Amino acid sequence: MATSSVGPGFLTQTTFFTEQLLASMGFVILISLILDIIAQMNIWRVLGVSGLRGQDVANKVLPGLGYVLATLIVIGGLAFNIGNVAGAGLGLNAMLGIDTLYGAIVSAGIAIFIFLFKEASKVMDRVTQIAGFIMIFLMLYVAFSTSPPVGEAIQQTFVPKEFGWLAIVTLVGGTVGGYITFAGGHRLIEAGITGEENLKQITTGSVTGILITGVMRVALFLAVLGVVSKGLTLDPNNPAASVFTHALGDFGGRVFGVIMWAAAITSVVGAAYTSVSFIRSFHPLLETYKNWITIGFIIVSTAVFATIGQPVKTLVFVGALNALILPLALGIMLIAAYNKKIMGPTYKHPLWLTITGVIVVVLMAVLCIRTVITNFSTLF
């Protein structure tokens, strides 16, 4: 879940908003982390205790609703995977000088290779863990190298000079929106970590996943803050990359390539795995051939990028659509949490999680609908 959320968009968004808000970005990160934890704890508890994937929970709440949720997840996952594949190509280009298109194809081949293994899920777990540790280590190294004004960042985390509400919505949508929050929840179900007896592990895992993304977000925030506080200007075409080159010169570009590629390849794997997990339970054949369907998902994403590049307008619109999935999905899970047929006769959902979950649903729904309307008008 954590490595799925840390993709090319994660790097660009964090850099973009830090350049705008400076030290006040600390407040944005703090609020978004709180909202992320509330959303993910609610969703994972329902999935974990029930032992049902998101689409199956939704179908039990209202017949047919699971098909709607699955359709939105797959469309959003496919669209964003085009960007993930492109990000992987850019990462190899920065790291090794390989042409971006060839880099994307090579990266897709590596992702496909993972799913050719009989024990693909175990290989996937190990690859994402290693990539995650590499990203965190390199990001912390760059953050330290830029000598950011840590004191000011801490102060404005709690007393900001500027409130970036759009940044909060974007960060929440990018961390637990769309397929991302289900990536870890579905993986727990597949690993057999379900039922009330595993509730502590499920809850701990949901919070840990968010905190890992938080470490990456804070490290990148400090790195960017360290650069812009010195009066240096970021390249608008690739702001995240310019942070690393400002900090470490040409070597920084290579470091950025490693981080970008690791972020992108794990997001390719996560988006493909989770999107396909939303349709596997609809027919026995889909379950039997799940790995081949996942491979096909990656091939289609790569083919679209290779032939027409990133369809920017479509990605913008589907990005807003993807953000809308969070209030829908979370709302469904909150209803399911009080359904004894889904959760069992003994489970009791914490009242504080319900209240805070409803607040997140309403807040994100209102803001995301406004975003969808704005983006829809730009398409035509």
TrEMBL record:
<feature type="transmembrane region" description="Helical">
    <location>
        <begin position="20"/>
        <end position="39"/>
    </location>
</feature>
<keyword id="KW-1133">Transmembrane helix</keyword>
<dbReference type="GO" id="GO:0034755">
    <property type="term" value="P:iron ion transmembrane transport"/>
</dbReference>
<dbReference type="GO" id="GO:0015086">
    <property type="term" value="F:cadmium ion transmembrane transporter activity"/>
</dbReference>
<feature type="transmembrane region" description="Helical">
    <location>
        <begin position="315"/>
        <end position="338"/>
    </location>
</feature>
<feature type="transmembrane region" description="Helical">
    <location>
        <begin position="291"/>
        <end position="309"/>
    </location>
</feature>
<keyword id="KW-0472">Membrane</keyword>
<dbReference type="Pfam" id="PF01566">
    <property type="entry name" value="Nramp"/>
</dbReference>
<feature type="transmembrane region" description="Helical">
    <location>
        <begin position="94"/>
        <end position="115"/>
    </location>
</feature>
<dbReference type="GO" id="GO:0005886">
    <property type="term" value="C:plasma membrane"/>
</dbReference>
<feature type="transmembrane region" description="Helical">
    <location>
        <begin position="206"/>
        <end position="228"/>
    </location>
</feature>
<feature type="transmembrane region" description="Helical">
    <location>
        <begin position="258"/>
        <end position="279"/>
    </location>
</feature>
<feature type="transmembrane region" description="Helical">
    <location>
        <begin position="350"/>
        <end position="373"/>
    </location>
</feature>
<dbReference type="GO" id="GO:0005384">
    <property type="term" value="F:manganese ion transmembrane transporter activity"/>
</dbReference>
<feature type="transmembrane region" description="Helical">
    <location>
        <begin position="127"/>
        <end position="144"/>
    </location>
</feature>
<dbReference type="InterPro" id="IPR001046">
    <property type="entry name" value="NRAMP_fam"/>
</dbReference>
<feature type="transmembrane region" description="Helical">
    <location>
        <begin position="164"/>
        <end position="185"/>
    </location>
</feature>
<protein>
    <recommendedName>
        <fullName>Divalent metal cation transporter</fullName>
    </recommendedName>
</protein>
<feature type="transmembrane region" description="Helical">
    <location>
        <begin position="60"/>
        <end position="82"/>
    </location>
</feature>
<keyword id="KW-0812">Transmembrane</keyword>
